[in-house]
Amino acid sequence: MPVTARRCLVAGRVQGVFFRASTRQRALELGCYGHVRNLADGRVEVLVAGEAAAVNTLIDWLWLGPPAAQVTHVEVQEVDAATVGTPSEFTIR
């Protein structure tokens, strides 16, 4: 199975609304791996890898986020899957 990897920068009201925990839960449900972390500028970074359909489903979900989030933009960049982390693990940093 080919692995797809993306770095997503999520902007809006995305910190302090359980965005990281919700993203981790959704990623694990989809069988993705990688990490999610808050950035100093108020955005959330999601580094995700997995089957292309699963990664794309997670990216679509990032536009919604958990109920308290208000996402205004999701920037998506292609990355090398080798830089993402350990398969079957999705961490909050």
Automatic annotation (TrEMBL):
GO terms for molecular function: acylphosphatase activity. Its EC number is 3.6.1.7. The active site is at 20, 38. It comes from Steroidobacter denitrificans. This is acylphosphatase. Keywords: Hydrolase. It holds the Pfam family Acylphosphatase. Signal peptide: none annotated.
